[in-house]
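Ticket #4471: structure export looks truncated?
Reporter: QA, pipeline team
Priority: medium

Steps to reproduce: submit the single chain below to the structure queue and open the exported record.
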Amino acid sequence: MPRFTVAALYKFTPLDGLDTLQARLKQVGEANEITGTLLLAAEGINGTIAGTADGIAAMLGAIRTLPGCGDLEHKESWAEAQPFLRLKVRLKREIVTMGIPGVDPNQLVGSYIDPSEWNELITAPDVVTIDTRNDYEVRIGQFEGAVNPQTVSFREFPEWFRNFRQGRPNARVAMYCTGGIRCEKATSFVKAEGIDEVFHLKGGILKYLETVPAEESLWRGECFVFDRRVAVGHGLEPGTHTLCHACREPLGPEDLRSDHFVPGVSCPHCHDRFSAEDRARFAERHKQALLAARRGEKHLGRVYEDEAPETGSETGSEAG
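Actual output as written to the record:
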C-alpha cells in the first residue's frame, strides 16, 4: 500500500478575490485527488492536505502562485492510509480564529526560534513557556515545564493571557503550537499588549519532532494532529492515540482499557455527558461505520476532519 504525503501549511498574507481563489484551488485539488481542508481569508491561507507526492507538489505549486505565497513553507509527514475523506476549500473570516480585531502578524509578530535553539531558550530561568493549544491537545503531550492555559477554544487565549501576565509581568515569553499558526497570532497579540521579548517555535511542534533527536528532546508525550492519525511522536511517526467518536477527545491506551470506553459510544472523558438518546444514536452510527468498512466503503459519519474538537479553527486542524 502506498504512503500518503500529508502537508501542513499556512501563510499570513493579504488576499482578495477569495471566491476566485477558492474555485482555482478546488479545481487543482480535485484534478490531483487531494483530500483535506484549506481555509482562505483576507489574512491568508491555512490548511492540511494529503495525497500522492506528485499530487501534493502540484497543489503546493498552485498555492505558491497566490499573492505573497511564493515563499510559503510547509511541513510534510506521511500516513499509511488516506487521512481525510474529501477535499474542502472554505472561506473564513480568520484562518485561525482569535476574535481580536487588529491582530496582524504581517505587522507585528514575535521572534522565531529554530528547533535547534528551543531547548536552550525554554530552560532559561527568566523564560515562561506557554502552550497556545487547547486543553485536549495539551493533555496528550507538551514541552517539559510549559504552562497549560486550559483553554477550550483559541478565542479564550487573550483573556487568559491578560490575567496570567499580572503574575509574571517581567518574564520573557516563549510560545509554541502544533505547526506555528496559533503562535503567529498569539505573539502578535502579546506584543500588542506591551510584552517586548516574545518568542515562538519556528515550524511548531511538528518541525521540532521532525528535526530534534528523541534523546535530546524536551517534548513529553505525543502531538495531537487533526486527521485520522490522531497523534504523532518523534520523527513524526504515527502515535498511539485514537479518537472517541462520541466526544472527539484523543484516547490513549489507558483510556481504551477503561470501563467507560465503549467504541463509538463513550470514553472516560464523556461517559457522563450525553443522554440515552445520544448514546443510541452514537451506537447506530458506529454500527453503520463498521458495516461500511466491511463492504469497503467510506462512511461520512466518521469523518475525522468534520468531527475534530473545536479548535478555533485550524482547518478542523491547526494545519500550519
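Status: closed, not a bug. The export was complete when the record was re-opened. Leaving a note from the reviewer for reference: The mean pLDDT is 90.
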